[in-house]
Q: What sequence folds into this?
C-alpha cells in the first residue's frame, strides 16, 4: 500500500518521525515506525543530558536502541541535538566556564558523539534554538560565555565536520514559519558564517504549527533559507489544536499538512520532512501546551487521521 516514505521518495524527499525508544515495545508504534518512515530522530535520547550526563560519562544505551532499530529497518538518522540550552545537564548549564574550557567541552562532546556514530548518522542538528524571537542571541551558558553566537556555533560545526565529513550539518530552530526578525537573523548568521567557511549544510525549521494559523509567508521563509545555497529540512512538524479536536479542525489540519508538504516539494533544496512523533497518544504537545494536542497524523488509537491523507495529497 501507500506509505509516507514512498510518497516522499517519489518526489526525491525523505519522510521521518521523532521516535522514543521507550515506545518500541508498543507493537503498533514499532510497526508504523518501521514501515511508514525512512528517517528517524531521537525524541530525547541523544540530547546532552541523556547521552553525556556528567563530564566523564557518556551513556549510549538508550540512543543505541533507536540506532539499531533504524539500522535493522533501513531508516536514516537525524542526530538531535549536539549543542542546545535545554535538556542540558547541570555540569554544563551551571559550570564555571571560561571561553577556553567551554570550547574544550563542546569539542569533546561533539567529537565523541559524531565520531562514535561516524557513517551511521546522516544528518545532525549541530546547534538548536539559539535565537530569541527578535533575532538576538538567546541566553544560554554558551551565548553568555562566548559573548554571542558566532564563536560557539563555529566551534561546534567545525568539530562535527572534522568528526564525520559526510554528515549533513544543520542549524535548527522554531518559529521560522514566517518571515520576520527570527528568520532574518537565521539568514544573516548562516550567510556570515558560510562566508567565513563554517561548514553549515542545512537549516532546519522545526515547524511546530497551529491548525488554521499557518502564515501566508511560510513558503517565503523556507525559500529565504534555500536561497543561501543550503539544504532545508522540516524537522519537527506537528500541527496542534484545542482538544478534543472537532471534525472541522481535523479537516483544516489535513489541508495544513498538505500545504507544508507541498512547500517542501516545491523547494528543490528541501530534503525532507520529519513529524515530531507518530501518534497523538505519545505527543509532547499536551504536556507543554495546556488544552492542546491532536497534532500528529495518527490518533490515540492509531487510526490514520485526515492529516495522513493530507500529507499524501501534498506529494
Ligand atoms: C521535546 C520532547 O518531545 C519532549 O519529550 C521533551 O520532554 C522536551 O523536548 N524542540 C526541540 C525538541 O528541539 O527537542 C523538543 O522535544 C520539542 C521542541
A:
Amino acid at each position: 500500500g501507500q506509505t509516507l516514505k514512498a510518497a516522499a521518495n517519489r518526489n526525491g524527499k525523505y519522510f521521518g518521525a521523532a521516535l522514543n525508544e521507550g515506545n518500541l515495545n508498543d507493537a503498533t508504534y514499532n510497526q508504523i515506525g518501521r514501515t511508514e518512515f525512512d528517517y528517524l530522530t531521537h525524541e530525547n535520547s541523544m540530547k546532552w543530558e541523556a547521552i553525556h550526563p556528567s563530564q566523564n560519562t557518556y551513556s549510549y544505551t538508550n540512543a543505541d536502541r533507536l540506532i539499531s532499530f533504524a539500522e535493522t529497518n533501513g531508516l536514516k538518522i537525524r542526530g538531535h541535538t549536539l549543542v542546545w540550552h535545554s535538556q542540558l545537564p547541570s555540569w554544563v548549564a551551571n559550570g564555571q566556564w571560561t571561553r577556553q574550557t567551554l570550547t574544550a567541552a563542546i569539542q569533546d562532546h561533539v567529537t565523541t558523539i559524531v565520531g562514535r556514530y561516524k557513517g551511521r548518522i546522516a544528518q545532525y542538528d549541530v546547534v538548536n534554538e539559539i535565537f530569541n524571537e527578535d533575532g538576538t542571541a538567546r541566553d544560554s551558558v554558551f551565548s553568555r560565555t562566548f559573548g554571542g553566537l558566532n564563536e560557539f556555533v563555529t566551534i561546534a560545526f567545525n568539530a562535527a565536520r572534522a568528526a564525520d565529513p559526510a554528515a549533513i550539518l544543520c542549524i535548527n530552530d522554531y518559529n521560522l514559519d514566517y518571515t520576520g526578525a527570527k528568520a532574518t537573523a537565521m539568514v544573516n548568521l548562516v550567510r556570515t558564517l558560510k562566508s567565513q567557511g563554517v561548514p553549515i549544510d542545512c537549516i532546519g525549521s522545526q515547524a511546530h504549527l497551529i491548525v488554521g494559523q499557518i502564515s501566508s509567508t511560510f513558503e517565503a521563509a523556507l525559500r529565504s533559507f534555500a536561497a543561501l545555497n543550503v539544504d532545508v529540512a522540516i524537522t519537527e512538524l506537528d500541527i496542534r489544536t484545542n482538544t478534543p479536536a472537532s471534525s472541522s479542525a481535523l479537516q483544516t489540519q489535513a489541508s495544513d499538512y498538505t500545504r507544508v508538504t507541498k512547500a517542501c516539494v516545491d523547494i528543490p533544496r528541501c530534503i525532507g520532512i520529519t513529524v515530531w512523533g507518530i501518534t497523538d497518544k505519545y505527543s509532547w504537545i499536551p504536556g507543554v501546551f495546556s488544552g492542546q494536542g491532536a497534532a500528529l497524523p495518527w490518533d490515540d488509537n492509531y487510526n490514520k487521521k485526515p492529516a495522513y491523507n493530507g500529507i499524501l495529497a501534498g506529494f
Observations:
- The chain has a mean pLDDT of 98.
